[in-house]
Design a protein that fits this description.
InterPro entries: CAT-like_dom_sf. The protein has 460 residues and is of the alpha+beta class. The protein has helices spanning 3-17, 46-50, 75-99, 134-138, 143-147, 158-161, 190-206, 219-223, 229-232, 255-265, 275-295, 309-313, 338-356, 362-376, 437-443, 447-450, and strands at residues 21-29, 41-43, 55-62, 106-110, 113-117, 123-130, 165-172, 177-184, 247-253, 301-308, 323-330, 382-388, 406-408, 417-422, 429-435, 454-455. A 7-stranded mixed sheet has the order 11-10-12-14-15-9-16, sandwiched between helices. The longest helix is centred in the N-terminal third of the chain and has 25 residues, at 75-99.
Length: 460
């Protein structure tokens, strides 16, 4: 066959195989009942004030298990199913927003104090059609493709979107559904996001939401109000978020490999390491080695491990942002073993619990974030940040067509970050790394890492 004909056929087949997402509708879903007058303004806490202004993204995949995963011929059935599910999602979202009323509001600033105007403006809801089976997307975690299933760029700001909560329901030609959600980090952390999604799913499933978890929105700001100029001087700047160009990779640790990794990390100092501790530490270790390989010298390194303050403060129902940081430092020269780094991290966690275990004042939180900011601003240290979304119940999100087959983090290009999320069985973990390109090139061939983790394996 002629070379040019072959090339033409290749280009044509590639064009035909490309995923096309068609936006069918864009609308605003408002709460089913208006916010009470005394709840019209919801002040943000010092925690909310100090987090960067971007969106937390997450994707839920629901294959159509009743129909084989190929292009179906029952067009009418497919169409009616989409209409029914879309209506259910919007109706239940409207009811859920009545309980999560700040999510339907708008952020405003008065005298440098951030608040939410709970004016029931609503959340964005986008509906799309995707011209391929859902299995094609689930074969590999491709950040470029997955980002198209989200309603907006996670690294955009509230000012650019006009919404605190955005949803995109992507209906595939096979009948499968992927729900992309982004929520402003100014009003939610991973725990709050998980609580909201489980509540929305419960409302959709039961229509009355009898099983919805308790939530408290006003308490954090009353316990930890914002402060004037001192707090504003500590605000986390977006330059920490949008620093250097970087790339994302996904590593998956199955349950058996985590057991093996725990065994390797166990020591007399830490006889019972957790899976978050061992996975976080291994990734931190490999990232430091990659940096040393490219720089030809060892830089001091700091690990910031996000800590859910609800456990420490014994307030499990507080919404918004209640995240502190455990600081773990590796400053000495030379190699560090997995065991020694796990011991460093465990010691830092225990010190954090002792320091804040009996409660924490607003001034202590301010000082905590000041230390955090000073360390982040030190250009002589490699800073790594890890956030664990494990045990937040994302795989419990059953809207009425079963639990998700895959819940994933689409990835954000924020240098030196690690996000951990459960695998479907609840025992394994997916880890999403964002590093400088030259560091990632080293880490993705690290033999120690690949002995316990698979680089972007297929989901199905």
């Amino acid at each position: 066959m002629n070379f040019f004909i072959k090339k033409l056929i290749y280009v044509w087949s590639k064009m035909c195989s490309e995923m096309v997402i068609e936006v069918i509708s864009k609308e605003t879903v408002t709460p089913s009942s208006s916010s009470l007058h005394h709840l019209r303004t919801s002040n943000l806490s010092v925690f909310d004030h100090l987090v960067p202004d971007f969106y937390i993204p997450i994707l839920f995949f629901y294959p159509n298990n009743s129909i084989t995963d190929h292009k179906i011929n029952i067009v009418d059935h497919h169409h009616s199913m989409i209409i029914e599910r879309s209506k259910l999602l919007k109706t239940s979202l409207s009811k859920t927003l009545s309980r999560f009323y700040p999510f339907a509001g708008r952020i405003f600033s008065h005298n440098n104090i951030l608040s939410i105007c709970c004016n029931d403006n609503g959340a964005a809801f986008i509906e799309t059609r995707v011209n391929c089976p859902i299995s094609k997307v689930m074969e590999k975690h491709n950040s470029g493709i997955l980002s198209q299933l989200l309603p907006n760029d996670p690294q955009s700001t509230f000012e650019s979107t006009g919404y605190l909560l955005l949803v995109q329901a992507n209906f595939f030609e096979c009948g499968g559904l992927a729900i992309g959600i982004t929520i402003s980090h100014k009003i939610a952390d991973g725990f709050t996001l998980g609580t909201f999604i489980r509540s929305w799913a419960a409302m959709c499933l039961s229509s009355n939401g009898m099983a919805l978890p308790a939530t408290e929105f006003c308490v954090p700001a009353s316990l930890y109000p914002q402060q004037d100029l001192f707090i504003n001087s500590l605000s986390t700047s977006r330059e920490h978020v949008n620093s250097e160009a970087c790339v994302n990779k996904r590593f998956v640790f199955d349950a058996s490999n985590i057991v093996r990794l725990k065994s390797k990390a166990t020591s007399a100092t830490v006889p019972n390491p957790t899976r978050v501790e061992v996975v976080t530490t291994l990734l931190w270790k490999c990232a430091m080695e990659a940096s040393r390989s490219n720089l030809s010298f060892t830089r001091p390194a700091m690990l910031f491990l996000a800590a859910n303050m609800r456990k420490v403060l014994k307030h499990p129902t507080l919404m918004g942002n209640l995240v502190g940081c455990v600081f773990a430092a590796k400053t000495q020269e030379g190699d560090a073993t997995l065991q020694s780094l796990v011991a460093i991290l465990r010691k830092s966690i225990e010190e954090f619990k002792v320091k804040y275990g009996e409660g924490v004042s607003r001034d202590a939180i301010c000082q905590h974030f000041k230390e955090h900011g000073d360390l982040m601003d030190n250009n002589d240290i490699n800073n790594y940040f890890c956030s664990s979304w494990c045990k937040f119940g994302f795989y419990e999100a059953n809207f009425g067509w079963g639990k998700p087959s895959w819940v994933t983090f689409p990835g954000m290009k924020i240098k030196n970050t690690i996000v951990l999320i459960d695998t479907k069985d609840g025992e394994g973990m997916e880890a999403f790394l964002s590093l400088k390109e030259e560091d990632m090139a080293v880490i993705e061939t690290n033999k120690e890492l690949l002995a316990y983790a698979s680089l972007n394996p297929t989901v199905i």
